[in-house]
Write a structure and sequence with these properties.
Length: 438
């Protein structure tokens, strides 16, 4: 009798956890992702601010499953699901909508940016969700300093050295802190015409406090820390406009050439593929066993799923994704071997953390609320622990020590992926303009 086939779409936190939970299952596990790597998203901001390189936080999916013989990894983009025929459609660079049948399906396709109905902002305010996004943000940030140094008119330096981060959740706060440290340490002595420490970093959010899910005290401590690092925190007003000249907040224009979107996320189209009920954000409403109504063989987990616990929706965080992925894998395993299924899914909240600059973090776990160096050490230990492989753990650990001690950054490269590095000499730059006018 052929083995059952379990298709897992997405090799993020949820998909990886599901596949690992199926390690000993007599089944063919097919793990499909549109990239060839798993990304540790919580550290993307460190790539964007030159602390780490992309290879510090990403691993080839294939290498993670090198020794898991029942698992085949396929690089392709899933474009749809046929629930009746029990198949998914996959496209790659060579073929379109190839159908692959399944006995069990786990959709773990995560989320992407949401510009809250203002998709026109995307052109001027890239988000931070993939390795490509982080590299693009790093290019943009470093290029702003290059442009300012090449600019002879000091009046333009202010705009070129103004950085606006839209969204003061953990990503925006962590990014603002890391940027503030970057200008004060690694960049400080490297320029002649400009003073990198004069860079203006503005963090904007419509909410009345930063780090929404954290307590009032921790939010205040994080805000004070950011302000001590020179970050301007503007709360209580959403961004009305983002364009080539900067942003408009509460009627005031903040001129900036570097705006980064660190606000909302939108789930993947899994709900549309399944043609099934979603919550207001578009996440698939799942049941206590993480399956979708009417289909015991289809699981949706992680950021693209919506499940309430104690009357509140579970947050879109890595812990939820990992615990759900593991649960789905275990439940499928129990069905295949005929053992009793695990109890209904229940999320165990281990707490939340956010780092604010060097040697300072906030940590909230149950009634425990801590800020400062101790929280930062805990943050570092937890993040190292959850990196996908020991080589990543070692690489990140050594880089962090180097950065902490020397203030230098691992990767301050502006890399243009469109052929030669001509992008740095485009007509937008003073040098490019000079060349163009000759
Ligand atoms: C910048 C940033 C910082 C964060 N910081 C934290 C933090 O500090 N702590 C925390 O707990 N959480 C944090 N999060 C949230 C956390 O990363 C997510 O909750 C978690 O990644 C969700 O896991 P997932 O498996 O559902 O989705 P993801 O990890 O997003 O994985 C989805 C996978 O599906 C693949 N995929 C998507 N669509 C398709 C398709 N059509 N076909 C094939 N493959 C597809 C993607 O390539 C990806 O590999 C952060 C997120 C971001 C973006």
């Amino acid at each position: 009798m052929p083995q059952p086939r379990i298709i897992i779409v997405g090799a993020g936190f949820a998909g990886l956890a599901a596949a690992k939970a199926l390690k000993k299952t007599q089944a063919e596990v097919v793990l499909i992702d549109r990239t060839n790597h798993h990304v540790f998203q919580p550290l993307l901001y460190q790539v964007a601010t030159s602390v780490l390189t992309p290879s510090h936080i990403a691993t080839p999916i294939r290498s993670i499953f090198r020794n898991q013989k029942n698992t085949i990894v396929i690089m392709g983009e899933v474009t749809g699901v046929d629930k009746d025929q029990k198949c998914v459609f996959v496209s790659d660079a060579d073929r379109q909508n190839v159908s692959i049948t399944y006995d069990y399906l786990i959709l773990a396709t995560g989320a992407s940016h949401s510009y809250f109905g203002h998709n026109e902002f995307a052109e001027y305010a890239p988000g931070l969700k993939s390795l490509g996004d982080a590299e693009a943000a790093r290019n943009k940030i470093l290029q702003a300093f290059e442009l300012a140094e090449a600019e002879e008119d000091p009046a333009r330096h202010r705009d070129l050295l103004t950085f606006v981060l839209v969204g003061a959740g953990p990503t925006g706060v962590e990014m603002a802190g890391a940027l503030a440290i970057l200008v004060r340490t690694a960049l400080k002595s490297d320029f002649r015409r400009i003073d990198p420490t004069s860079a203006r970093i503005v963090l904007v959010d419509a909410a009345p406090k930063i780090l929404g899910p954290f307590s009032e005290n921790l939010s205040k401590a994080a805000k004070q820390r950011l302000e001590k690092l020179g970050v301007e925190v503007r709360l209580g007003h959403s961004v009305d406009q983002i364009d080539a000249e900067g942003v408009i907040v509460a009627g005031e224009r903040i001129a900036s050439k570097t705006v980064i979107w660190t606000a909302g996320v939108a789930p993947s189209p899994a709900g549309k593929w399944l043609n099934i009920e979603t919550d207001r954000a578009g996440r698939v409403r799942i049941q206590k066993d993480l399956t979708v109504p009417g289909h015991v063989e289809i699981f949706v987990v992680g950021d693209t799923a919506s499940l309430d616990q104690n009357g509140k929706p579970l947050p879109g965080v890595a812990q939820v994704a990992m615990q759900q992925g593991r649960y789905a894998g275990k439940l499928i395993h129990s069905r295949i071997v005929g053992s009793p299924p695990p109890r209904a899914f229940s999320y165990f909240d281990k707490g939340s953390m956010a780092v604010v600059g060097k040697g300072f973090a906030v940590l909230q776990s149950g009634k425990v609320q801590v800020s400062g160096l101790g929280a930062w050490l805990a943050w570092a230990a937890v993040h190292l622990q959850f990196l996908a492989t020991s080589s990543l753990r070692l690489g990140v650990f050594l880089q962090w020590i180097w950065t902490y001690v020397t203030g230098q950054r691992g990767s301050r490269l502006i890399v243009n992926h469109h052929g030669s590095d001509k992008g740095t000499r485009s007509a937008e730059t003073p040098l490019g303009a000079a060349a163009a006018s000759k």
